């Protein structure tokens, strides 16, 4: 038997399958650069600024990255997060101008140029300073341009043509002007204090330039013979100190004790074979620390002659352990409230030039501060017997000299956390040198004002408030001078007669004007002193300060030469950087602005964590576990990297690696497929099809309710005045979940039948396309801050326009009236019941009883309160079956899963919609179609 012509007819061409030029494959590495070229040709940034004129402003002030090398994954995370926040604010209706910037001065660049010199056998000190600075400027310019291109490739939107850099002449002039403000208000002073000093880089370092690593230090127990004491039995006894810096012994000028500590006078009666002590020694050690000292020094039998409080040591005088070898001065014993019994011996040797506590105690008691160490870490002639020796190689010589003097009690090693320069990665020392400081607690009251400003700042997360607050509360005066060449000089002259700096506003004005025209190089040109001092002062009578200012002061001043000069509001709405910047840029910006303006330069601070590998380890080239953003762009494209940023909790440390990127690519695929299906199903849609909200079916109104929920979340994160501003964590995962679960797996799944098979003018199909139109507009604008390239592609696929862009738009308008909590609760029940039905059908499908759900006609037993949720026909639509029976169940308990029965659907399969219905075959003209499909086909004829 052969099929009749009617039976053999192919109806596939009558089905409204999705059609769109938007491809399934993103191919982002190829498409994104073309999109960037299009935006540049369109002048998108400039047009957006013109379009935004008159709006309320939002300014995220860019913390400047350092112009030194290619971008790493931390840079990418930081700039992408900034970009999403800026774009979100823009689409929320604000004028979000963003001026990216760079930090260009300082040691890392200077160090790189010096490395090039060393490789060529050149002596940096023999190079004229202006030539050296020119090479540093060229190096910074090169990497600034490289990084700018890399940031733009990430899709970061900003005023790249008018970026700022700390080495711009206008910036250098403004920095000099900011220093001048501190000079004129009296907060800037020169003082001798111990600072962290890098012997390798020959400069003072700030706390923010220090990182701590494990370090093995040689230890020393030394004996100070008491020459004078109130108690006769203490004279001739040896005070024992312990230190992890034997090299500081030449700088010793006192010994500190604790007034309330219990000290033991110990008589040694036996020693081990390797001990440096001898029988008969009389030693003073803190009683709680005696057991540990016995072990370290090899003491056997001994007698504690007596125990006494530290107050008995008042006025005591000791001999330096190297007395007779150039150290023939008395060493006083002084009370120190920093002395504890946590470790050591309960006595602390005091070298006023090599420690904060030492220096303060020395200043309190008028101790001399000998300059025993040179810039390069070698001993000066003020360290007799050790001159020219490097401090980190001096412990053996110190041991030998003290062994010869009979004052060496014990030696050892200790592994502990020790400060290192974050650039050279080498250990630093504490060294007292004349430096320039900004006072924290003078009449300007910077500390008090800064703490008040912290209280008034909005923090994300709020834990940042306590972190920066505790640092500001405890910090010493700010050392802003550096002994280098590449940077902005501290434009100060000091009177050789009085030693006081000149506080003359006219000098500052001349300096600022010169720097604005010629850059800071003007300070180093011949005749600079006479030029800036003016005709009324003799340059011979003044010292021209040649130190440069700390780069943290420079970057902390960026608000002064970026915000007001570009007519941007001050304070900025937001500062955003990694959590390490509580002691870095946030900190220096706060102190600088409070010192010159009396207020913080920011209204809010957002901090993100660090980027780790997939195992939670710190990334390092030696481990081979780094993820380079350049490699991600080549393999996946920028939108995948941007999606990774927005799918992490940025306030915590993030992880990234090959497997995580694969997961992000899969999440992206689902979002892209959602957009593709939307676009395909909207082919030919026009405003004439639109169905008013009041006429929409419940399912469509439920989708619009979900739209209101998502819209509220994205606006709450985007709008700078909302209670949860900048809280983007979780927003894009929820959008993905909406696309994958609410839309693709539920709404689209249900409405495919109506969209593909209903006649074009059916109310149900028009209602669905009305909602799809809204979804497309909302999703494109919601995704635009994060998936900048994909959102643009999805927008232009539907609205092709050479002059158009999704990035010109605000978020789509979402009426408050779409919100319907009661409807949401009802459809939550419906989805739960649907899940029970599809679960049963899946079991029968796996067993081979049916091939698809359309071959079933399930029965559903519901309690009375759920019986009227939907009609049987609506249940069939929702569960994607051909028919459904719904019966009341008096036995069903409240909240219990519904009872679902399985029955095969009676009838024949429609050749067009594939539903199995008894009515198929009833039409003489279209015997293989159901009545709905016959009507649709005839409507197309």
TrEMBL record:
<dbReference type="InterPro" id="IPR014729">
    <property type="entry name" value="Rossmann-like_a/b/a_fold"/>
</dbReference>
<dbReference type="InterPro" id="IPR023585">
    <property type="entry name" value="Ile-tRNA-ligase_type1"/>
</dbReference>
<feature type="binding site">
    <location>
        <position position="930"/>
    </location>
    <ligand>
        <name>Zn(2+)</name>
    </ligand>
</feature>
<feature type="domain" description="Methionyl/Valyl/Leucyl/Isoleucyl-tRNA synthetase anticodon-binding">
    <location>
        <begin position="700"/>
        <end position="857"/>
    </location>
</feature>
<feature type="binding site">
    <location>
        <position position="910"/>
    </location>
    <ligand>
        <name>Zn(2+)</name>
    </ligand>
</feature>
<keyword id="KW-0862">Zinc</keyword>
<keyword id="KW-0030">Aminoacyl-tRNA synthetase</keyword>
<feature type="domain" description="Zinc finger FPG/IleRS-type">
    <location>
        <begin position="909"/>
        <end position="935"/>
    </location>
</feature>
<dbReference type="InterPro" id="IPR033708">
    <property type="entry name" value="Anticodon_Ile_BEm"/>
</dbReference>
<dbReference type="InterPro" id="IPR013155">
    <property type="entry name" value="M/V/L/I-tRNA-synth_anticd-bd"/>
</dbReference>
<comment type="subunit">
    <text>Monomer.</text>
</comment>
<comment type="similarity">
    <text>Belongs to the class-I aminoacyl-tRNA synthetase family. IleS type 1 subfamily.</text>
</comment>
<keyword id="KW-0963">Cytoplasm</keyword>
<protein>
    <recommendedName>
        <fullName>Isoleucine--tRNA ligase</fullName>
        <ecNumber>6.1.1.5</ecNumber>
    </recommendedName>
</protein>
<dbReference type="InterPro" id="IPR009008">
    <property type="entry name" value="Val/Leu/Ile-tRNA-synth_edit"/>
</dbReference>
<feature type="short sequence motif" description="'HIGH' region">
    <location>
        <begin position="65"/>
        <end position="75"/>
    </location>
</feature>
<feature type="binding site">
    <location>
        <position position="933"/>
    </location>
    <ligand>
        <name>Zn(2+)</name>
    </ligand>
</feature>
<dbReference type="InterPro" id="IPR009080">
    <property type="entry name" value="tRNAsynth_Ia_anticodon-bd"/>
</dbReference>
<feature type="binding site">
    <location>
        <position position="913"/>
    </location>
    <ligand>
        <name>Zn(2+)</name>
    </ligand>
</feature>
<keyword id="KW-0436">Ligase</keyword>
<feature type="binding site">
    <location>
        <position position="577"/>
    </location>
    <ligand>
        <name>L-isoleucyl-5'-AMP</name>
    </ligand>
</feature>
<comment type="function">
    <text>Catalyzes the attachment of isoleucine to tRNA(Ile). As IleRS can inadvertently accommodate and process structurally similar amino acids such as valine, to avoid such errors it has two additional distinct tRNA(Ile)-dependent editing activities. One activity is designated as 'pretransfer' editing and involves the hydrolysis of activated Val-AMP. The other activity is designated 'posttransfer' editing and involves deacylation of mischarged Val-tRNA(Ile).</text>
</comment>
<dbReference type="GO" id="GO:0004822">
    <property type="term" value="F:isoleucine-tRNA ligase activity"/>
</dbReference>
<dbReference type="InterPro" id="IPR010663">
    <property type="entry name" value="Znf_FPG/IleRS"/>
</dbReference>
<dbReference type="Pfam" id="PF06827">
    <property type="entry name" value="zf-FPG_IleRS"/>
</dbReference>
<dbReference type="Pfam" id="PF00133">
    <property type="entry name" value="tRNA-synt_1"/>
</dbReference>
<feature type="domain" description="Aminoacyl-tRNA synthetase class Ia">
    <location>
        <begin position="35"/>
        <end position="656"/>
    </location>
</feature>
<dbReference type="InterPro" id="IPR001412">
    <property type="entry name" value="aa-tRNA-synth_I_CS"/>
</dbReference>
<dbReference type="InterPro" id="IPR050081">
    <property type="entry name" value="Ile-tRNA_ligase"/>
</dbReference>
<keyword id="KW-0547">Nucleotide-binding</keyword>
<feature type="binding site">
    <location>
        <position position="621"/>
    </location>
    <ligand>
        <name>ATP</name>
    </ligand>
</feature>
<feature type="short sequence motif" description="'KMSKS' region">
    <location>
        <begin position="618"/>
        <end position="622"/>
    </location>
</feature>
<dbReference type="InterPro" id="IPR002301">
    <property type="entry name" value="Ile-tRNA-ligase"/>
</dbReference>
<keyword id="KW-0067">ATP-binding</keyword>
<keyword id="KW-0479">Metal-binding</keyword>
<keyword id="KW-0648">Protein biosynthesis</keyword>
<dbReference type="Pfam" id="PF08264">
    <property type="entry name" value="Anticodon_1"/>
</dbReference>
<dbReference type="InterPro" id="IPR002300">
    <property type="entry name" value="aa-tRNA-synth_Ia"/>
</dbReference>
């Amino acid at each position: 038997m052969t099929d009749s012509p009617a039976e053999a007819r192919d109806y596939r061409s009558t089905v409204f399958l999705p059609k769109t030029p938007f491809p399934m494959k993103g191919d982002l590495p190829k498409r994104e650069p073309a999109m960037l070229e299009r935006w540049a040709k369109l002048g998108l940034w400039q047009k957006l600024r013109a379009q935004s004129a008159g709006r309320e402003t939002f300014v995220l002030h860019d913390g400047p990255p350092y112009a030194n090398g290619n971008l790493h994954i931390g840079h990418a995370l930081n700039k992408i997060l900034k970009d999403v926040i800026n774009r979100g604010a823009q689409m929320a209706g604000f004028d979000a101008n963003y001026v990216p910037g760079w930090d260009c001065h300082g040691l890392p660049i200077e160090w790189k140029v010096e490395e090039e010199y060393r490789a060529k056998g050149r002596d940096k000190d023999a190079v004229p300073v202006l030539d050296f600075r020119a090479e540093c400027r060229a190096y910074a310019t090169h990497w600034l341009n490289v990084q700018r291109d890399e940031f733009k490739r990430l899709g970061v939107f900003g005023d790249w043509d008018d970026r700022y850099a700390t080495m711009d002449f206008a910036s250098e002039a403004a920095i000099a002007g900011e220093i001048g403000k501190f000079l004129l208000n009296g907060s800037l002073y020169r003082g001798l204090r111990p600072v962290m000093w890098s012997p390798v880089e020959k400069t003072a370092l700030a706390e923010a330039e220090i990182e701590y690593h494990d370090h093995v230090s040689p230890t020393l127990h030394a004996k100070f013979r008491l020459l004078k004491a109130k108690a006769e039995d203490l004279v001739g006894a040896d005070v024992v100190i312990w230190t992890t810096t034997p090299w500081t012994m030449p700088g010793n000028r006192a010994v500190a004790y604790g007034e309330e500590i219990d000290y033991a006078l110990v008589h040694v009666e036996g020693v081990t074979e390797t001990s440096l002590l001898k029988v008969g020694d009389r030693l003073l050690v803190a009683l709680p620390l005696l057991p540990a000292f016995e072990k370290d020094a090899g003491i056997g039998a001994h007698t504690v002659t007596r125990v006494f409080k530290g107050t008995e040591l008042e006025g005591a005088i000791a001999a330096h352990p190297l007395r007779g070898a150039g150290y023939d001065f008395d060493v006083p014993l002084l009370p120190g409230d920093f002395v504890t019994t946590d470790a050591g011996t309960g006595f602390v040797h005091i070298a006023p030039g090599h420690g904060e506590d030492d220096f303060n105690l020395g200043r309190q008691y008028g101790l001399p501060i000998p300059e025993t160490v040179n810039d390069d870490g070698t001993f000066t002639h003020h360290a007799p017997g050790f001159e020219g020796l490097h401090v980190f190689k001096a412990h053996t010589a110190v041991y030998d000299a003290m062994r010869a003097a009979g004052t060496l009690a014990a030696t050892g090693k200790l592994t502990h956390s020790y400060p290192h320069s974050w650039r050279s990665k080498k250990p630093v020392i504490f060294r007292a040198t004349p430096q320039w400081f900004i006072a924290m607690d003078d009449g300007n009251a910077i500390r008090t004002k800064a703490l008040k400003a912290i209280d008034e700042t909005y923090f994300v997360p709020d834990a940042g408030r306590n972190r920066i607050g505790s640092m500001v509360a405890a910090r010493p005066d700010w050392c802003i001078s550096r002994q280098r060449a590449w940077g902005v000089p501290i434009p100060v002259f000091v009177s050789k007669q009085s030693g006081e700096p000149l506080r003359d506003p006219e000098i500052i004005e001349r300096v600022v004007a010169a720097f604005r025209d010629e850059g800071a190089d003007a300070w180093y040109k011949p005749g600079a002193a006479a030029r800036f001092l003016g005709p009324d002062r003799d340059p011979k009578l003044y010292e021209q300060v040649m130190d440069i200012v700390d780069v943290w002061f420079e970057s902390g001043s960026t608000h002064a030469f970026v915000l007001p000069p570009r007519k941007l509001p001050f304070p900025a709405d937001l500062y955003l950087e990694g959590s390490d910047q509580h002691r870095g840029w946030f900190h220096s910006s706060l102190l600088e602005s409070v010192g010159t303006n009396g207020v913080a330069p920011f209204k809010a601070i957002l901090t993100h964590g660090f980027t780790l590998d997939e195992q939670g380890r710190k990334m390092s080239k030696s481990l081979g576990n780094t993820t380079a953003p350049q490699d991600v762009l080549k393999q996946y494209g920028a939108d995948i990297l941007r999606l990774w940023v927005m799918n992490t909790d940025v306030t915590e440390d993030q992880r990234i690696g090959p497997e995580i990127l694969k997961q992000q690519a899969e999440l992206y695929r689902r979002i892209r497929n959602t957009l593709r299906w939307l676009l395909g199903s909207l082919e030919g849609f026009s405003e004439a099809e639109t169905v008013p909200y009041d006429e929409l079916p419940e399912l469509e109104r439920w989708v619009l309710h979900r739209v209101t929920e998502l819209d509220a979340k994205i606006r709450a994160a985007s709008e700078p005045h909302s209670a949860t501003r900048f809280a983007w964590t979780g927003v894009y995962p929820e959008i993905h979940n909406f696309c994958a679960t609410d839309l693709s797996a539920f709404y689209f799944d249900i409405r495919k039948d109506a969209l593909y098979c209903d006649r074009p003018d059916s109310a149900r199909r028009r209602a669905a396309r009305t909602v799809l139109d809204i979804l497309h507009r909302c999703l494109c604008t919601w995704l635009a801050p994060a998936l900048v390239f994909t959102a643009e592609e999805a927008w232009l696929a539907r609205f092709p326009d050479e002059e158009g862009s999704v990035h010109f738009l605000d978020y789509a308008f979402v009426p408050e009236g779409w919100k319907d909590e009661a409807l949401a609760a009802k459809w939550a029940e419906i989805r739960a019941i649907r899940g029970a039905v599809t679960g049963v059908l899946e079991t029968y499908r796996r067993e081979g009883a049916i091939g698809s759900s359309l071959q079933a006609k399930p029965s559903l037993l519901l309690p009375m309160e759920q019986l009227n949720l939907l009609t049987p026909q609506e249940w069939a639509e929702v569960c994607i079956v051909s028919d459904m029976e719904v019966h009341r169940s008096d036995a069903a308990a409240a909240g219990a899963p519904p009872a679902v029965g399985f029955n095969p659907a009676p009838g024949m399969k429609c050749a067009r919609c594939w539903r199995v219905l008894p009515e198929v075959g009833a039409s003489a003209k279209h015997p293989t179609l159901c009545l709905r499909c016959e009507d649709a086909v005839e409507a197309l004829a």
